[in-house]
Amino acid sequence: MKANPGGQIDIKAVIGRERLIQNLWEAVEQQSLVITAERRIGKTTVIKKMRAEPASGWVPVFQDLERCHSAAEFAMVVYKEIHQFLSQKGKATRRAKEWFTAMGGTEIGGLFKFPEQAGAHWKDVLTRAVEDLIHENDAAGSKLLFLWDEIPFMLANIRDREGEQTAMEVLDLLRALRQTHGGLRMVITGSIGLHHVLTSLKDKNYSNSPVNDMTAIDVPPLAETDAIQLATLLIDGEGLPSDDKPAAAKAIADEADCFPFYIHHIVRALKIRGLDATPKNVAQVVASQLVDANDPWELLHYRERIPIYYGYDKKAVFLILDELAGQPGIASISELLAMLKGSSTFDDKERLLRILSLMERDHYLKRDENGSYHFRFPLIRRWWKLNRGM
Ligand SMILES: Nc1ncnc2c1ncn2[C@@H]1O[C@H](COP(=O)(O)OP(=O)(O)O)[C@@H](O)[C@H]1O
Ligand SMILES: [Mg+2]
Fold first, then answer.
1. Is the pLDDT of residue 254 over 70?
2. CATH number corresponding to 224-290
3. Given the CA of residue 6, which atom of ligand 1 is nearest to it?
4. Each residue of 88-122: pLDDT tens digit?
5. Does residue 17's CB lie within 6 angstroms of at least one atom of ligand 1?
6. How far is the CA of 389 from the CAs of 256, 288, 298, 325, 386, in angstroms?
7. What percent of the chain has a predicted confidence (pLDDT) above 90?
8. How far is the CA of 17 from the centre of ligand 2 (A)?
């Protein structure tokens, strides 16, 4: 297996995740799911594996929505996918197609020319296309599962181009479809929470009502044994010399906090620099990658998104992270409040609680049994210190 950080990996090159995927299939029997987890942790890989190896009785449809910029584009992308899907089976998107033709759209050899007014009718297109597919599935006794990757990015695009109202309407329509069709399931993923995309959600105290009929599931880093296995396969695949492979693989897994993306990066860096796989070399490449101005591990967003998402509270967030990055690395709510009072004009416990809970949802922090906070990922803490010159 070759190092391929961030690339399309073959389904056979997906390590671990069996238990998680099994849980997802079981959960989806009951409800639709929202998977939010940090960027590059492996969400897309998990849902692509679900598409490639569906549980029996399920028909998954996967779509990457990150680059959709309007509600109409979303509707069309779904329509096209369903159209292709059904035509492969010799079936037609009947209702959607009737509508499409009636509106003056044409299709020649798989190339679509959408009707001029289609934009205004995105709800019809989406509803009919989805219902056509549900209809076929009902007839075949199978269950339909949409795997929609990076919905929050799409909603942010729609919000910026068409306004928050339209973005909300997309979520409302999806919810209405779920409610009308009891057997329909959606698994939506996001690297950022929906609450950051829609301020009207924010105003309602961060409740996520358009998805409160869905179960939230977290994708953690790999289990340690899987992380070590991945590191071992990559050391072998890249032909890295090693006089103690198990020790090197363990060092890679540890330094990467078991994030598969960073494991791929470490092995690639060893390969490019012509280094043997040894714990010492692993520590060396990680140290240099964490301060690399090109940000190969894509960590800068942990800092850059703070002013965007936390707005007025950004100063408090920086102070909290700086505090937790230093020693002892853990603090109670009252300690954090005292620190904020000492370093700024911040003096509002309720607001602090809200900020902390958001920082937890955004994967910065974790709470221990005593209610104290610390960085969720040691690696991010280490990077934060370096990046902030601490
Ligand atoms: N289970 C896995 N086994 C091996 N490599 C993985 C696995 N999951 C993720 N990766 C690696 O991490 C990269 C990022 O994963 P991806 O699924 O795209 O993350 P996300 O969608 O959460 O941003 C992939 O390109 C691949 O190199
Ligand atoms: Mg992804």
1. yes
2. 1.10.8
3. 25
4. 777 766 777 777 777 777 777 666 676 666 667 88
5. yes
6. 21, 15, 18, 11, 5
7. 73
8. 15
pLDDT above 90: residue 195: no
Residues with Cβ within 8 Å of 126's Cβ and at least 6 positions away in sequence, in order, are 74, 75, 78, 79, 173, 177
Identify the three-state secondary structure at position 146: strand
Q: How far is the CA of 259 from the centre of ligand 2 (A)?
A: 14
| DSSP SS3 for 112 | strand
The CATH label, of 1.10.10.10, 2.60.120.200, 1.10.1740.10, 3.40.50.2000, for the domain at 301-387 is: 1.10.10.10
Rg (CA), the chain: 23
For domain 17-217, say whether CATH 3.50.50.60 is its number. Answer: no
Ligand 2 centre and the CA of 51: distance in Å?
Answer: 14
Atom nearest to 16 CA in ligand 1? 1
Q: Confirm whether pTM is higher than 0.85.
A: yes
**Which of 197-206, 258-267, 380-389 is predicted with the least confidence, judged by mean pLDDT?**
197-206
Q: Which of the listed residues 15, 40, 222 should we mutate to test ligand 1's pocket, taking the one with most ligand atoms within 8 A of CB?
A: 40
**Token output for 27:** 């959960």
Tokens coding 230: 């991945």
Contacts of 181 (CB under 8 A, 6+ apart): 130, 131, 134
Domain regions of the chain by residue span: 17-217, 224-290, 301-387
Is the alpha carbon torsion for 250, 231, 22, 41 positive or negative? positive
